[in-house]
Here is the input.
Amino acid sequence: MDKILMKRVYEPVEEMDGFRILIDRLWPRGISKDTAKLSNWFKDLAPSSELRKWFCHKPELFEEFRNRYLEELRTDGQKQEYIRQIFEMAARCPVTLLYGAKDPVYNHARVLMEELGRLAEGD
Here is the structure.
């Protein structure tokens, strides 16, 4: 899992980023496509619109959000395909998952990294 990294899309691009994949459903405000330097945009890997709107980045809802998003990650075929592609890319070079949320703790990228770690361990 050390080849899969996570950071805000607003942080500077670094050579060590490898494949840069935006994992937000919505394009981040104030970032141009040139600045983002994306390799891919997996918008359907993000939480469903309904779940994203329900959560609204409220820390007190995070645990329930986490459970619901994990359920989506484990049952949605498209999300599972994106996860497979992330592992496939990470076998060749580093992969950086990019998100736009201001809060570094209460966001979907953390939940996704948790799930990727679980899957990498073969759990």
Notes: The mean pLDDT is 95. Strands lie at 4-8, 19-22, 40-41, 95-99.
